[in-house]
Amino acid sequence: MAKPYMPKNILITGAAGFIASHVAIRIAKKYPDYKIVVLDKLDYCSNLKNLLPVSSSPNFKFVKGDTASADLVNFILVTENIDTMMHFAAQTHVDNSFGNSFEFTKNNIYGTHVLLEACRNTGQIKRFIHVSTDEVYGETDEDAVVGNHEASQLLPTNPYAATKAGAEMLVMAYGRSYGLPVITTQGNNVYGPNQFPEKLIPKFILLAMKGEPLPIHGDGSNVRSYLYCEDVAEAFEVILHRGEVRHVYNIGTKKERTVMDVARDICKIFNLVAEKAIKFVDNRPFNDQRYFLDDEKLKGLGWSERTYWEEGLRKTVEWYVANSDYWGDVSGALLPHPKAGMMPGHEGPQDTKGMLAQFITQNQAKTLAAPAASEHGAKTVENGAQVYTNGTVH
């Protein structure tokens, strides 16, 4: 096996969100010699509280900003001497993509393109890890015994998956045309603490806590595979250090369950009668029946799933019971068919300065003056990007 890659300065996009926050925390804590810079625009499904465990770490910095801002991205790459990028930032909820597809194109395709171009321009990136999804493969045959492998054709069936597949094509092209050291991951569903409750498992948990019906699209026979967030964070740690450039890695599990199985398991934990608690609602415009991945390639790097479903679900339920108000008013997300306009943060501009001020106040931090722009970067940083580092907002 080749010598492990050792990064120095890592930019993680979207790390105030669910999966990336677990990755950022794991790497920042385990590798204190690595500098972790987070770039996140704090959309409705992001939360600064997700990063509290490392907010005062000397190797951690938070920048509020958009991946679609070329000026800002170039500025960060140069001033922070970034050598590694882990790109998680994306719009991810399929339901939203059916009614708000242009926003998905802007964030998922254009945002990725901006990052790639910045990496090409600076010429200093040694790893670009692009985070994609199992949905780019499209629907797996119900009787398939072997999952989609990394060379399988991409056949997305919904706007979200199409934008992720489009982003993958750009990543592949920049790897081939410009020699950018790219790695792509395609993962199964992830669950665990901190996940915004538009997704199935946290939505069902919060509804069960309220004694409200659990809405199931269609007949509930759709099959999915679920990985616990800490296992996925470990997978990204492995890929960061041992993944080969220009390769694709599936992050998956062969343990499948239907949506009905998930609903019944949650009902059981809350002592609910599933037949009474479950409510069948209209299906999505298109709802893939099954996603199934071949994960042998990643296992060859030394990774394996560690958390059994029962254990992971128990931990997740315990977290949501203890943090029921973590996201504030999420009534719009708990609807059977949530829409972007019903989500927090879509009613108008967010008070991001207030959010950041509250964030650092909780950590007994102090405020310093904004840093001057780098002569190598843009003359202005779009939207007055705010930086949080070592308990300080810049």
Automatic annotation (TrEMBL):
Keyword Amino-acid biosynthesis applies: no
GO terms for biological process, alphabetical: nucleotide-sugar metabolic process
Cofactor(s) listed: NAD(+)
Classification via SUPFAM superfamilies: NAD(P)-binding Rossmann-fold domains
NAD(P)-binding domain: residues covered: 11-316
Taxonomic superkingdom: Eukaryota
MF GO annotations: lyase activity
Record's keyword terms, sorted: Lyase, NAD
Protein name: NAD(P)-binding domain-containing protein
